[in-house]
Design a protein that fits this description.
Layout: E1 6-10, H1 13-25, H2 34-41, E2 46-51, E3 54-63, E4 68-76, H3 85-96, E5 101-107, H4 111-116, E6 120-131, E7 142-144, H5 150-157, H6 166-173, E8 179-185, E9 188-197, E10 202-209, H7 212-223, E11 231-237, H8 241-249, E12 253-262, E13 274-276
Parallel strand pairs: 4-5, 10-11
Antiparallel strand pairs: 1-2, 2-3, 3-4, 5-12, 6-11, 6-12, 7-8, 8-9, 9-10, 10-13
Helix pairs in contact: 1-2, 2-6
Length: about 280
């Protein structure tokens, strides 16, 4: 029998859409415009494994500015699992990010396997599901982000992530069908959030705010942008009890958990101000 040829290469922009489709088949419920936004984070950071020319596996390995990277979209087609194709792709991704502190959000069942590659558990991230709707808060301090200079948003965003990511943020807040809102306090941006359409319902993320009160106002404003019958999702860290309280106060239910892991030290982020994580896939 002729041996099959397996090769790994960088995805094209169109193939990132294929990775999103595979993620949907896995039940990850990606956003409708995630591919375009994620590609802006690192156009070279999406790898595909092909067997005799057929795409059978994918992974993202995002090189951010500085010394940080993030792995996601690690998917092998079911009929090709357990045959060594996935681990070759995994090693290629880690090689692409060599020398960086690498983060990931992995399913709990794979935590031990990630540890074998040098990842250490930082904390759990939790996905909550609820319903949209509700009344729009009568708060003049809540504004559409497009009324704000991007430099002001970038300056506010900077402490919430291990490094700068301006091109991604520009794409994220301007994607079709999303609502991106900021909240001002004494003339200064003090929080912002985005709600975007997904295969099912909408996801809120990020949701960053300087206090629980501001996060509550932003959350209500964002969920009021969709119908009361629409499912909404919020991903939060277990280390922010105020975020857990917000989700539970709005009768949201825990539906999924991940292990946030890093190969080096856990970045010092203001988790008490992170009420919604931007993305499990690219950080």
């Amino acid at each position: 029998m002729q041996q099959k040829h397996y090769n790994i290469r960088t995805m094209t922009r169109e193939e990132v859409t294929l990775a999103i489709e595979w993620a949907a088949q896995e039940g990850w419920n990606p956003g409708l415009h995630d591919a375009a936004c994620y590609y802006e984070a690192d156009p070279d950071g999406f790898l595909m494994g092909l067997l005799d020319g057929e795409p059978i596996a994918c992974i993202s390995a995002i090189r951010y500015a500085g010394s940080f990277g993030f792995v996601g979209f690690y998917i092998v087609k079911p009929q090709y699992r357990g045959q060594g194709y996935g681990i070759q792709l995994w090693n290629a991704a880690l090689d692409y990010l060599k020398g960086r502190n690498i983060g990931l959000d992995g399913v709990l069942a794979q935590q031990d396997n990630y540890m074998k590659s040098g990842f250490k558990l930082a904390y759990r991230n939790i996905r909550y599901e609820g319903l949209g709707g509700g009344s729009q808060p009568e708060n003049p301090e809540i504004i559409p982000l497009d009324r704000l200079a991007f430099d002001a948003l970038a300056a506010y965003e900077r402490p919430f992530f291990p490094t700068e990511r301006p091109e991604f943020i520009k794409a994220w807040i301007n994607q079709p069908g999303c609502h991106a809102l900021g909240i001002m306090r004494n003339g200064t941006l003090s929080g912002y959030g985005v709600i975007r359409p997904c295969r099912k319902g909408y996801k809120i993320g990020p949701l960053f705010a300087d206090s629980q009160e501001l996060a509550e106002s932003l959350f209500q404003a964002l969920k009021a942008k969709v119908e009361a019958s629409d499912a909404i999702y919020l991903d939060i860290s277990e280390l922010n009890p105020a975020a857990v309280e917000l989700a539970e106060r709005h009768k949201m239910q825990l539906v999924f958990e991940t292990s946030r892991m890093y190969t080096r030290e856990t970045p010092e982020l203001p988790l008490d101000k992170i009420f919604g994580i931007t993305s499990f896939e690219i950080g």
